[in-house]
Structures are given as C-alpha cells and as structure tokens.
C-alpha cells in the first residue's frame, strides 16, 4: 500500500511538472486576492475559495492582447464570486505553424482536465465549473470537457471557436454540445460574407478565422456571426492594411469581438440601455428581413447574449 501511494505521488508530481513546462503556468485569482498572480499548484490548497470556478483559456497571457482580454474576463467572473483560473499555454501556442498549435489543443485540453479533476477531488462540484475559451481556447476547453461524462462539466462558453483545422464534422475533434451540460457558443468571424456596406466592402479577405458550424446547445451569431461593425476587413481595407503592415489588426478585430460582447452586460444595467438579445432564427437572411422578431408566448425564442450570469445560472431559463 505504501509503495502504491508513493508511485501515485511520483506520477502526480511528474504530471504537474510536465504540465507546467508545457503550458507555462495556471494562474489562480479569487475575489479575496483579486490582484495576485499565483501559480495554481502551490497556491491551490491555501487560497482556493469554495464555490464556482471559471477557467479562462484565450491567447497566451504573455502576449499583450491576451493579457488584456484575460483581465477583462476575470474581472467579470470575480464580480460573481467565482474563483478564476487563467491558463497560459504560450509554449504550445507559439508554434509558427498554426496547424501544429491547433493539434496541441488536444494535449492542452487533456492536461487541463487533470487539474479540473484535482479541484473535484478537493470537493468542488463539477456542475459549478465553467470553462471559457476563445479561438483555439474554445476547442481546448471542449477537449477538457470530453474527459468528464458522468457527471459532465457544468458549462462551457466557446467564444468564436477557431475554424481552420476544426471544420471536420466530428464531435471528437472539436468543441461539441456533448462536452458539458450546457455549451453556449458566440460566433463573430465565421465567414467570408459581411452583411452590410458597399459591394467592395462585402467580401472578407481574411475571413473564416472563426467556425461557421453550430457547436453548442445555443449558438449566438451577432450581426450574422461574420464581420462585426467597426471592424473593416474588406477587400479595400485588407489591401490597404497589407501595405501598412496591419493585416492582423482588421482580422483580429472581428475575432476578438467575441470576448467583448459576452461581458458587455456589466455596463448595460440601466433599464433604458440597449440590451443584447438574440432571436431564434433559421437564417440571418430571415432575421435581416424582420421575420424573427417574435420571442414566443413563453419568451424562450429570445435569449440574452451570454455571459449574463444572472440569467444563465437560473436553471429555469435553460430548455
């Protein structure tokens, strides 16, 4: 028995060290210590606060935009007394070949599930775990969720899940509704066609950053899920930015909008403010034509854009 326990401890320690060397670090932030950046492994047992847990997987935090997005996201969840764990996976994400980084999502997701199981072993209810991922991170949290079947992870939020490398219609190789009890996806850059502007501004030259397929129980598509207002990546803008060396700015604007819209309800608390409400519709053509403005007798044909935790944490609203 003693030898078995020692073997298990050695295996656990080796898994932790390999994970740290591969993903750089996991950062734990709680509402008790919201400004500290703490490595999860030494801090977990000391500072973890019982309750809900949100994992955020986006751009590696060492990259400027990723750090900003991570902080905006963690502030939102701290307002609701979540523990927030930010996954920094800079090493596997930094491969110059995008498809290698995409392949690494399966490995990082499996490793993330190891830490989720650690939390569960500490008494965290798996139903109180919320995995949030942007771009490739959306598929990472999906791969993590696939390791929990009975019971399942409580909730996954996929923010403009990456398209290239994940177009295959196979739930085993990308984010899928079966990865958690509730999977909600927001699409903001999933196509080549934009729904407004002149003919020259319609084609999205750097399009298909996001995934066009339905990947969750609920799939939100703001402005059709393609180009977003204020993000010009049209033919003319694309060519202009190429000469200015700013091609990535126009592409990322649409893609990153998925991380801004879900937390916008923090600033929309006034009764007369514009609310982010989505209407059930079979196509954006029909929505654009005004054919999908009915919320239904029970109101369930309309949903507030996530996160809106006051709504989505109420089980009565989930049908």
UniProtKB/TrEMBL annotation:
Gene Ontology BP annotations: lipid catabolic process
GO molecular function: lipase activity
GO cellular component entries: extracellular space
InterPro entries in the record: AB_hydrolase_fold, Lipase, TAG_lipase
UniProt domain Lipase: residue ranges: 73-302
Localization terms from the record: Secreted
Keywords: Secreted
Main localization, broad class: secreted
Pfam families: Lipase (PF00151)
Keyword RNA-binding: no
Coiled coil: none
Domain of life: Eukaryota
Similarity comment: Belongs to the AB hydrolase superfamily. Lipase family.
Record protein name field: Lipase domain-containing protein
Organism of origin: Medioppia subpectinata
């Amino acid at each position: 028995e003693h030898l078995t326990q020692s073997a298990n401890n050695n295996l656990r320690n080796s898994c932790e060290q390999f994970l740290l060397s591969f993903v750089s670090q996991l950062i734990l932030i709680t509402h008790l210590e919201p400004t500290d950046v703490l490595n999860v492994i030494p801090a977990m047992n000391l500072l973890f606060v019982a309750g809900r847990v949100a994992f955020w997987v986006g751009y590696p935090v060492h990259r400027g935009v990723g750090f900003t997005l991570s902080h905006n996201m963690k502030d939102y969840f701290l307002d609701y007394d979540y523990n927030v764990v930010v996954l920094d996976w800079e090493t596997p994400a930094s491969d110059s070949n995008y498809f290698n980084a995409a392949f690494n999502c399966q490995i990082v997701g499996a490793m993330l599930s190891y830490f989720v199981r650690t939390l569960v072993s500490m008494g965290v209810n798996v139903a109180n775990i919320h995995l949030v991922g942007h771009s490739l991170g959306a598929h990472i949290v999906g791969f993590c969720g696939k390791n929990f079947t009975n019971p399942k992870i409580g909730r996954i939020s996929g923010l403009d899940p990456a398209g290239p490398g994940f177009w295959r219609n196979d739930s085993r190789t990308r984010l899928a509704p079966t990865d958690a009890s509730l999977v909600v996806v927001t699409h903001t850059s999933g196509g080549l066609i934009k729904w407004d502007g002149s003919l020259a501004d319609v084609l999205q030259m750097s399009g298909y950053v996001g995934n066009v397929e339905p990947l969750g129980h609920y799939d939100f598509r703001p402005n059709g899920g393609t180009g977003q207002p204020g993000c010009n990546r049209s033919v003319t803008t694309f060519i202009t930015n190429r000469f200015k060396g700013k091609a990535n700015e126009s592409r990322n604007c649409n893609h990153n909008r998925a991380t801004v819209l879900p937390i916008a309800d923090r600033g929309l608390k006034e009764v007369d403010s514009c609310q982010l409400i989505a209407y059930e519709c079979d196509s954006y053509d029909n929505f654009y034509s005004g054919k999908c403005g009915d919320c239904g007798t029970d109101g369930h044909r309309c949903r507030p854009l996530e996160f809106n935790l006051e709504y989505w944490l109420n089980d009565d609203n989930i049908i």
